[in-house]
Amino acid sequence: MAALTGSPSTLQILPKKTLLVPSTRSRCLFMTSLLRPSSISALTSMQKKSSSKVVALLLSENDSHRGDVLHAASSMLSNCLSETHLDQTVRGLLSKSRGKVRDVYDAGDHLVLVTTDRQSAFDRVLASIPFKGQVLNETSLWWFNKTQHITPNALVSAPDRNVTIAKKCSVFPVEFVVRRYITGSTDTSLWTVYAEGIRNYCGNSLPEGLVKNEKLSANILTPTTKSADHDVPVSPDEILQLGLMTKDELDEVSNKALALFSYGQQVALENGLILVDTKYEFGKAADGTIMLVDEVHTPDSSRYWIANSYQERFNSGIEPENVDKEFLRLWFKEHCNPYEDEVLPEAPKDLVCELAWRYIFLFETITNSKFQLPVSEVAYYKLYFTPVGSGHINFLLSQEPIHDRITRNVSNALSSF
């Protein structure tokens, strides 16, 4: 490490003067600098310029942008948000439930949903992907805002880049999957069941002669029951027979799901992408309003393909260019049995970083905005102490741990309710 010295206009890097042992929690470095008080503003200015260089990455198709993201992802591999414990750090949270990707906390009338970097498929966690939680959360926020003309949603606020605070509601135990293409590699994917000879799936009659990745004649609904272990395909008639929803609820949610998907297809195609399939979850608020919950049109809940190369690759029998987690699924299927093997191989680091890039590429492409990469260097500084009469200032230079940042932001948000 090094210390900063010089006048406000001529800051220089000097060898470190003092290094104290940091706590593992904050990973802080105490350094003595020769800065005078008047130099603080210069340090602040320098940090802002450095930060903007790192995070202001605009959407670009050139290799330089992809390289920047891959480098940033590689540097964050050991700092992913794989687990949270806000029930231990935020006052007022009543309990925690751990999903495959999200940690959900009960806050009375609201739920605090923390989107982690955990990557799930085949009903289990496969890896942790840098920036993934932030990408999913911010992608959903964008779509929640854009789809309010179709359906209300449970969003209340987003106090942190990984956090959504939502209205508490009774979630229907059904996931509404909408598809336009026959594809996939999981047990419940349309291509898997079709290849096994099934021609009536979730109440949909499928014609003979379809091939993988082919476009269907219309959008179709293929619901599944929600389960902690394994989702089970179910038809609309079975949903009613099992008492999972009333007919009115089923009709309303089905119409909303199809309308959301149609709108998502339109937005995706306008930006050079194909929304292949996706899943939605809905709940009922205390006043009876049916609302969209969880996430919407993220690369975790959806498949996206590059539009301009789809037809040529399909005609050649080549897998479409995808902008989702399908290529990671395929890697695991080629190297193990992800459903039955007790221990899975570790995903290659270059594959993990590539997935981080694809998720960010999707966010930037859909939203036409830049993705703010978290600063992986010194995030902020604090005045530690000033020895009287010494003319020196000691600074605490620190990268704020992700969990501390989330704790701070969630605590502030809940205190305002």
UniProtKB/TrEMBL annotation:
InterPro entries: SAICAR_synt/ADE2_N, SAICAR_synthetase_CS. Keywords: ATP-binding, Ligase, Nucleotide-binding, Purine biosynthesis. It is an enzyme of class 6 (ligase). GO terms for biological process: 'de novo' IMP biosynthetic process. It catalyses: 5-amino-1-(5-phospho-D-ribosyl)imidazole-4-carboxylate + L-aspartate + ATP = (2S)-2-[5-amino-1-(5-phospho-beta-D-ribosyl)imidazole-4-carboxamido]succinate + ADP + phosphate + 2 H(+). One of its GO terms (molecular function) is ATP binding. GO terms for cellular component: chloroplast stroma. The keyword Ligase applies. It comes from the Eukaryota. Residues 97-343 form the SAICAR synthetase/ADE2 N-terminal domain. Belongs to the SAICAR synthetase family. This is Phosphoribosylaminoimidazole-succinocarboxamide synthase, chloroplastic. The lineage of its organism: Eukaryota, Viridiplantae, Streptophyta, Embryophyta, Tracheophyta.
